[in-house]
Amino acid sequence: MSVLLETSLGDIVIDLLVDQAPRCCENFLKLCKIKYYNYSPIHSIQRNFSFQTGDPLGPFSADSDGGSSIWGLLQGPSNKSFAPEFKPSLKHHERGTVSMATAPIGKEDDTDRVAGSQFIVTLGEDLEYLDGKGAVFGTVVEGFDVLEKINSAFIDDAGRPLKDIRIRHTIILDDPINDPPGLVDFLPQKSPLPTPAQMATVRIADDEDLDVEMDQEALENLRREREARAQALTLEMMGDLPFAEVKPPENILFVCKLNPVTRDEDLELLFSRFGKILSCEVIRDKRTGDSLQYAFIEFENAKDCEQAYFKMQDVLIDDHRIHVDFSQSVSRLSDTWRTATNTKRQSAAGFGGIQGLEKKRQYRTEDREGSTRVDKYGMVFDKARGKGGNGRPSEAPEEHHGGRRRSRSISPRRNREPDYRRSKYDDGGPRPGERRRSRSRDQHRDKRRRHRSRERYPDDRDRRRQERR
User: Where is the composition biased (Basic and acidic residues) (predicted)?
Assistant: First the structure.
């Protein structure tokens, strides 16, 4: 037997003690069923003690009647309150104990108490003060983070939160109790909207952001922080950073405004008096080798690095006053991470270091080994296809199309229409798609042409040969 309370700060699940407090549980279940608690404000917050809710308007509204029990709604105002069960075994020992808020019938006698619709949820442990004043009927089983948010909310002197905390919706997860007569008439078809009287009690809406006065410096720092976080996330997505929250090392100094003649050995000698140096490198141009006038110095100990930062600021080195700061570069960390990742991928099985992943298939490949094609293109086929004796794929079977027999060639169709337009290939070179013929084939063709021309047009030398014969 459970009920889910959807509040403006989160969801709370309450388990009901039906066997120990059946009358309180029936009242609470049926009020939840008719959506009586929707938009009820949470009030009377006492930190590490308790908070109270269940009045649809709240105690700060002039129109509030304090709430009514389910029998008061069904049978009339005379049954607005009821006598709850007080079990000696049910105490407010644990945080999240749910009990009905009660009031004494008379001023002199405090033992006879009645309850209506309001209930209390404890925010602390061992609250013996509430024993005998609150009728325990359930416990919170989920949503303790919501209780902590309510406990830490900003409140005024009366315990009213400055920003509204309300019950938005109630859902019954399990209801073993039969509905009383007449309850069907109070069941809404859909979740009801807040009434004008409830809207009038709103101080600051639960979905409204508080206007916090911040100076320009704080706003600028917040903007820079958000911008840096967004840029780091972009670099992580691009693969330039191992992760967005990476921080630069604390033992590396950045030195700039160096003289172009300053060498690595000079800086290492000057900075080594503060501690052991692991590396000292003046950054140079990759093409010319000239100094870019800044360097990175890595110390073994972060304290030595900090001491060098304070002592070497504006020191004159080779007639240049240098500037020293802590390095903000993470390129070395990224290179180390990238190298380790690539090594792991190369050592793993599969393509790209992923087991079961194969390289993508290609249907045309360039510069195949052993290919005799002049156009440098070849076809890639599955191993299941047969090949001819010359290493080329065999032709596909013939097809019949309307009584006509046509053979299908696997090779790509070539453009057989010659291009007679003048272009840049008129220098004697082959056109695109043409095969470069061998010299022996051209010689054989020219020889045949000469023989034919001699037979048709004999010259003087051939005539003399015939006369001699």
Answer: 357-376, 414-445, 455-469
Widest CA span in the chain: 163
The region that residue 293 occupies, defined by phi over 0 for left and psi between -120 and 50 for alpha, beta otherwise, is left
Query: Residues 126-183: pLDDT tens digits?
Result: 999 999 899 999 999 999 999 999 999 888 888 999 888 999 999 998 888 888 989 9
Distances in Å between the alpha carbon of 25 and those of 34, 176, 220?
14, 10, 54
Listing DSSP states for 103-164 in one string gives EESSSS--S-EEEEEEEEEESSS--GGGBTTEEEEEEEEE-HHHHHHHHTS-B-TTS-BSS-
The burial class, CB within 10 Å (0-12 / 13-18 / 19+), for 236 is: middle
**Strands of 43-46's sheet, edge to edge?**
40-41, 166-172, 2-7, 10-16, 134-142, 97-104, 113-122, 50-53, 43-46
Q: In the structure encoding, which two tokens stand for residue 106, read together?
A: 């008379």
Residue environment code for 264-303, b if the CB has 16+ CB neighbours within 10 A, otherwise e: eebbbebbeebbebeebebeeeeeeeebebebbbbbeeee
> What's the CA gap between 346 and 371, in Å, rounded?
30
Q: What is the DSSP letter of 274?
A: G
Through-space distance between the first and last CA atoms of the chain, rounded to whole angstroms: 130
Query: What span, in angstroms and rounded, lies between the C-alpha atoms of 88 and 224?
Result: 59
Cα distances from 189 to residues 33, 184, 310, in angstroms, run 11, 11, 73
Domains of the chain, each with CATH number or no CATH? 2-199 (2.40.100.10), 252-332 (3.30.70.330)
* Higher per-residue pLDDT: 173 or 437: 173
What are 234-290's pLDDT values in tens digits?
Answer: 777 777 677 777 778 888 999 999 999 999 998 999 999 999 999 899 999 989 989
Count of helix runs (H) and strand runs (E) in the chain: 10, 19
Q: Residue 322 and residue 348: Cα distance in Å, rounded?
A: 48
CB 326 within 8 A of CB 248: yes
Q: Find all residues with CB under 8 Å of 199, minimum gap 6, and list them.
A: none
Contact 427, 420 (CB under 8 A): no
